[in-house]
Amino acid sequence: MKASKVRIIAAILVLALVFGLCGCGKRKSDDPVEDAALSAVDWLYGDVGAVHGANWLAVAMSAWEGLAPKDNWQEGFGDSVAAVAEECGGVFSAKKLTDQAKVVISVTAAGYDAADFAGYDLTLPFADYETALLQGINGASWSLIALDFGGYDMPENPDAAVQATKDMYIDYILSRQLPDGGFAFSTTATLGDPDMTGMVLIALANYMDRADVAEAVERAVTCLSELQDEDGGYTSYGFATAESCAQVILALLRLGIPLDDERFIKNGNTIMDKLLEYRTDDGGFAHVMGDAVNGVATEQAMIAVVSYLRIEAGMPDIFTAYR
Asked: Which residues touch 253 (CB under 8 Å, ≥6 apart)?
């Protein structure tokens, strides 16, 4: 499809959603965590709809029954992503595999095979080791997360200068562990960052059968406990944010560590207690306490609370839902 057709599809979907939600009022739940998930989904759905780019919205709605404001949203979402895939040849960013990873995760969550989607193998770029490492630890981590989310094998990419393997990405990540046990995006950092450490733990969680991974994970978990603020939240680069809380929650749940683990309770507060304080009156989440609603913060908080709901219901965490 051409760009004009993509815009038409997006416009139709958004209009349908707006009119579909009007008059319904805000959906509520007696459970504060589920209520946070419902309100976040409603805010994001009404803002952008279930179209290409709404990656985490697609994941959340697929992962918890009753979150989607509308039935049969998957087909429209798939059509929207397919239209963009046709325009870009199945490569959503030539140098940022994190963009590719989010698409692979979202279409997989929506019920599609990312290795055979609209005539393209969307997992193919992850086989290009050098391209992945243009984003350093980010690229390596998200390549693993995306492949493992759908249980995809590493594809063979004849055009790659260096064919990647999952072990190569794991080894690279481990080489970036800092003395305090944490991880950071910058290659010159000396202290771990909660966001990057959480992300790395999500990527490594599937490889705990490797002794070096298990040891690295244990050190990183200890680092996260020590980095936690006294109010239960997390600070990254000088700012206490909802996203930092969400990233650590996702990592702990991925590892099977309950949020009421004594290592992660500060002054009686769990990380979830703190995350919920970032909720805004319009249903989303703020980036920084007291600010207006923020789209990225709302997305990340949403998948964190959905992952928690799944664990509480005896289901796998959100990153093992579709493996």
From this structure: 259, 307, 308, 311, 317, 318
> How large is the angle between the packed helices 55-63 and 73-88, nearest 10 degrees?
150
For residue 47, what are the contacts with CB-CB under 8 A and spacing of at least 6? 295
> 96: phi > 0 → left, psi -120 to 50 → alpha, else beta; which?
beta
**Which of 297, 283, 290 has the alpha carbon at shortest distance from 245?**
297
The average pLDDT across 278-293 equals 96
Query: Domain spanning 3-312: which CATH class is it, in words?
Result: mainly alpha
pLDDT, tens digit, 9 for 90 and up, residues 36-80: 999 999 999 986 789 999 999 999 999 999 999 988 999 999 999
Integer Cα distance of 113 and 115 in angstroms: 5
Q: Are 117 and 142 a contacting pair, CB within 8 Å? A: no
Would you give the distance in Å from CA 96 to the centre of its chain? Answer: 16
Q: Which of 219, 144, 228 is nearest to 183 (CA)?
A: 219
Residue 60 · residue 24 · CB < 8 Å: no
If one compares 303 and 28, the residue with the highest pLDDT of the two is: 303
Domain extents for the chain?
3-312
Tell me the CB-side half-sphere exposure of residue 2, using CA atoms within 13 A: 1
Alpha carbon distance 143, 148 (integer Å): 9
User: Tokens 């990592």 map to which residue?
Assistant: 251
The torsion region of residue 136 among left (phi > 0), alpha (psi -120 to 50) and beta comes to left
- Kindly report, residue by residue over 217-237, the tens digit of the pLDDT: 999 999 999 999 999 999 999
